[in-house]
Structure formats: C-alpha cells, structure tokens
Amino acid sequence: MGASAVLSDISAVHVLTAARERYSNPESVRSYMAVVVAFFRWCAEAERQWADPAWFRRIKLRTMKTDKPKVTIAPPERVADFLYNVPAKYQAGFALQFFAGLRPEEMVAKDS
Fold it and tell me: Is residue 1 in a domain?
C-alpha cells in the first residue's frame, strides 16, 4: 500500500497492519484506529462522497481488548504524611489533586 492508494482499495487489514507496525501498545493501536475510523467517516460524508458509505460500513476495525491496570488509592495516612513534608505553598494544590482528583495540568493558572 503506497502513499497514493485509492480509498476503496484500503481494507481493515491494511489499517490494522499499519497501526501495529507503528505502535506496540494496544491502547495506542486502538487510538490510531479511532482516528482512522473518523477519517473514513469524513471521506464518506455526503458533500465529499470520496468513499462509498456502503464500502465504509463493510470495514470492521477490531482491536484487541486490554485489561486496564488497577488504580491504587493512597491511604489517608500516607497522604497526610506526604502533605506534612511538602512546602506550605504547595500543600493546597497537592491536597486538591489527592482529594478531588485534579490532574497537575488542571492546576496551572490561566492567563486572562
């Protein structure tokens, strides 16, 4: 399959093979496949019709399911010990992250 392949010549096998060649993590393969599915849908929209919707529906993009690692939650005593040893100016932010589930990037103040 070259860079100039005709859409109707691309099969699910081609797409899955390309995904697996690029990524070893099943989650990455699944993300890649989701992007490809979105692209195929876009190509098949009425104003474009670059791909026949019937052709698109025939392609079944399957990926292997993976077991998600179990998320562990720190016991309150460990969190309290951690917060005790953090400089005071960071304690409120870390407490929000621990107890409200905020991600570090959500803690960054936005310039207005």
Answer: no
**3-class SS shares of the chain: helix, strand, coil, % to 5:** 60, 0, 40
Q: Are residues 54 and 80 in the same domain?
A: no
Rounded distance, CA 7 to CA 24, Å? 25
**Structural domain contains residue 93:** yes
Listed in sequence order, the residues at least 6 apart from 11 whose beta carbon sits closer than 8 Å to its beta carbon are: 59
On whether the CB atoms of residues 8 and 52 are closer than 8 A, the answer is: yes
Model confidence, pTM: 0.43
What are the tokens at 98?
């621990």
Q: What is the pLDDT of residues 68-78, one digit of tens each?
A: 777 788 898 99
Number of domains, the chain: 2
